Amino acid sequence: MADLSGMRFAETHEWVKKEGDTATVGISEYAQSQLGDVIYLELPAVGQQLDAGARLGVIESVKAASDLYSPITGEVSEVNQDLKDHPEYVNQDPYGKGWVIKLRSVKDNAKLLDQKAYDAFVQGQSG
Amino acid sequence: MVVTAERTPLYDEHVHLGAQMTNFGGWVMPLQYSSIREEHRAVREAVGLFDLSHMGEVRVKDESLAQRVVTRDLTRLRPGRIQYAMLCNDAGGIIDDVLVYAVADGGYLMVVNAGNQDADFDWIGAHASKGAHPVLNVGRDWALIGVQGPRAVGLVQRLTPSQLGGVKYYAFIEGKVADVACVISRTGYTGEDGFELFCGTDDAVRLWRALLEEGQADGIRPAGLGARDTLRLEAGMRLHGNDIDASTNPLEAGLDWTLSLDKDFIGRDAIVQARDRGLSRVLVGFKMLDRSIPRHGYVVVDNGQRVGTVSSGNVSFTLGYNIGMAYVPPTLAAPGTRFGVDVRGTVAAAEVVALPFYKRPHPK
């Protein structure tokens, strides 16, 4: 299990982990289980500026295409190239090698949930 | 009004196996148990087990009625044999695609799509002549379990005293499997060899468990509707409601081989007229030339013009690229022809390929 401490979640089911003024973004365990087998991700270019809540790309599973949103404001510094050949990493390890993008110059301006609050939110959604 | 989705006799088995359930055609069905990719692979490489009990069955004893409602001439269909055919409306549109089983004690059993079973029954019944055998809607009396994959025949053979080697593709026998009285049908919707086993609803759990247990040695996996859809797409099989419906005729859908235009059937005249007028669109298979994934409803574009619609699309796990079927003008139908698919506002390149996308290596 990945280290979830310090990880925060958007209600659109992305997670973000901030380290200084950089951050890593992915999708939650709940999101990957709902999407099912991920087969393709359409991701932004490095250098693109994203506002919190802005569409950052599209994730395609066998079932459907879904939008991904940036949980935080920042500039794309890296996209996970491994996902090109291994989109299944998102299913297998959503908090680890299934990370999606990294951001720099992040501004912590978004209303996000800690893991406990997010788990309660998911419970409410699926209940 | 609250419409309650129906459950098959295997509902509790699916829940127990941890399936994600979904509503399909008015039924609560397993979408996937573990992973669509893994279930798909199990069917291509080993064996998969499907609950198909949502499918409908309509008993039509009256042979002339059956001949009138299906597109294919049934006179040469001997008992124990099966044909794929269409049920068409007066305009030649496809009400449903069905498997017609010629039954030893007379007439036919039609296996129809889950969501259409009551409408099909009403439609066929409405054309019955007074005093003839009544049409029976028996879908809810039967469970149906699919056993599909290269190891399917061997698995079922180990559980039955019947000799399955003589049961050809699109033929069926009656026999016992795991001591359960079954109709053993060599049919499927995956592109693999295998059987579909009809049994009474009370016996379904016993048969399902016996197949899962005996199949452990073969690497069996229960497979849900997700894998069923990716498998049938690779095999180029049409899905009613996606690729064919009441607004498409069998010629457009590339199903002319299911038509016996020299017999009289409902929709025949309209289909002949459509043929003589010339088709404005035809169903083709295509593959994407990049990584984008085509989906039902996406627009086909040629030279900046909207020229067609994707009817089905997804990843092909077996082939390693993305595939789909689409209705396009006949001028764009030849294999090798390229067109665009509008994938969320970006036009992605696609190329027409012959159907089916996938054929199993050693068909028997």
Description:
The complex is a heterodimer of chains A (127) and B (364). Chain A is α+β, with helices and mostly antiparallel strands. Chain A has four helices and ten strands; from the N terminus they run βββαβββββααββα. Chain A is 21% helix and 39% strand. In chain A, β2 (14-19) and β3 form a beta hairpin. Chain B has two domains: 1-277, Gyrase A, domain 2 (2-Layer Sandwich); 280-364, Elongation Factor Tu (Ef-tu), domain 3. Chain B has helices at residues 11-16, 36-45, 63-69, 117-126, 152-158, 204-214, 225-234, 268-277, and strands at 6-7, 20-24, 27-32, 48-51, 56-60, 82-88, 94-102, 108-112, 136-137, 142-148, 172-177, 180-185, 194-200, 221-222, 282-288, 299-302, 305-316, 321-328, 338-343, 346-353. In chain B, the strands form four sheets. Chain B has a six-stranded mixed sheet with strand order 11-12-13-10-4-14. A six-stranded antiparallel beta barrel of chain B has the order 15-18-17-16-19-20. A five-stranded antiparallel sheet of chain B has the order 6-7-8-5-9, covered by helices on one side. In chain B, β7 and β8 (108-112) form a beta hairpin. In chain B, α2 crosses α7 (225-234). Chains A and B meet through β4 of A and loops of B.
Question: Which helices and strands occur, and which strands form pairs?
Answer:
The complex is a heterodimer of chains A (127) and B (364).
Chain A: E1 7-9, E2 14-19, E3 22-27, H1 29-35, E4 38-42, E5 49-50, E6 55-61, E7 65-69, E8 73-79, H2 82-85, H3 89-92, E9 101-107, E10 113-114, H4 115-126
Antiparallel strand pairs in A: 1-2, 1-10, 2-3, 3-9, 4-6, 5-8, 6-7, 8-9
Chain B: E1 6-7, H1 11-16, E2 20-24, E3 27-32, H2 36-45, E4 48-51, E5 56-60, H3 63-69, E6 82-88, E7 94-102, E8 108-112, H4 117-126, E9 136-137, E10 142-148, H5 152-158, E11 172-177, E12 180-185, E13 194-200, H6 204-214, E14 221-222, H7 225-234, H8 268-277, E15 282-288, E16 299-302, E17 305-316, E18 321-328, E19 338-343, E20 346-353
Parallel strand pairs in B: 1-3, 4-14
Antiparallel strand pairs in B: 2-3, 4-10, 5-8, 5-9, 6-7, 7-8, 10-13, 11-12, 12-13, 15-18, 15-20, 16-17, 16-19, 17-18, 19-20
